[in-house]
């Protein structure tokens, strides 16, 4: 089987309403966030099997990221981006994440403002296998929905 380390599963323009911001008035409302994520992973097994259980499931990623944004209620976009990428690397079998989080309504004169970060996993092969098994179990449950 052909293996590659440069495959990507991506999410573009995920919209989440969450408490975010430094100022007191921002703590009392929700604002829209626009999130792009690129998860570098090996898709070769799913490419052959055509089985979602072998894939890094982008539906699960979207559900998790939306829930984490609402939970975290960060002041800074930097904090939110750091927390989300740590959680994604801990849960999903990927070795690199590029994540951008934008506030499209924060600055009237700008289309959007935000941050983009890149983070790498420091996982051993064993840890990666454990995450793949957990993902497979998660995906099996998703099949039933
Ligand atoms: N680098 C950042 N600068 C600013 C942030 C931020 O999260 N990162 N946040 C704000 C305010 O919350 C702003 O969005 C209100 O308009 C200001 N600067």
UniProtKB/TrEMBL annotation:
It catalyses: 7,8-dihydroneopterin = 6-hydroxymethyl-7,8-dihydropterin + glycolaldehyde. It comes from the Bacteria. InterPro entries: Dihydroneopterin_aldolase, FolB_dom, GTP-CH-I_C/QueF. Residues 9-119 form the Dihydroneopterin aldolase/epimerase domain. Pathway: Cofactor biosynthesis; tetrahydrofolate biosynthesis; 2-amino-4-hydroxy-6-hydroxymethyl-7,8-dihydropteridine diphosphate from 7,8-dihydroneopterin triphosphate: step 3/4. It is an enzyme of class 4 (lyase). Catalyzes the conversion of 7,8-dihydroneopterin to 6-hydroxymethyl-7,8-dihydropterin. This is 7,8-dihydroneopterin aldolase. It comes from Psychrobacter glaciei. The lineage of its organism: Bacteria, Pseudomonadati, Pseudomonadota, Gammaproteobacteria, Moraxellales.
């Amino acid at each position: 089987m052909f293996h590659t380390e440069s495959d990507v599963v991506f999410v573009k323009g995920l919209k989440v309403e969450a408490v975010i911001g430094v100022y007191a008035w921002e703590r009392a409302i929700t604002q829209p966030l626009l999130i792009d994520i690129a998860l570098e992973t090996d898709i070769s097994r799913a490419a052959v099997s055509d089985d979602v259980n072998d894939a890094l499931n982008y539906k699960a990623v979207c559900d998790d990221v939306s829930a984490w944004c609402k939970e975290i209620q960060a002041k800074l976009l930097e904090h939110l981006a750091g927390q989300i990428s740590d959680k994604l690397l801990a849960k999903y079998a990927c070795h690199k994440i590029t994540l951008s989080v934008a506030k499209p309504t924060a600055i009237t004169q700008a289309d959007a403002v935000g941050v983009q970060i890149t983070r790498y996993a420091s996982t051993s092969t064993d840890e990666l296998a454990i995450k793949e098994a957990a993902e497979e179990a998660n995906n099996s449950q998703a099949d039933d929905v």
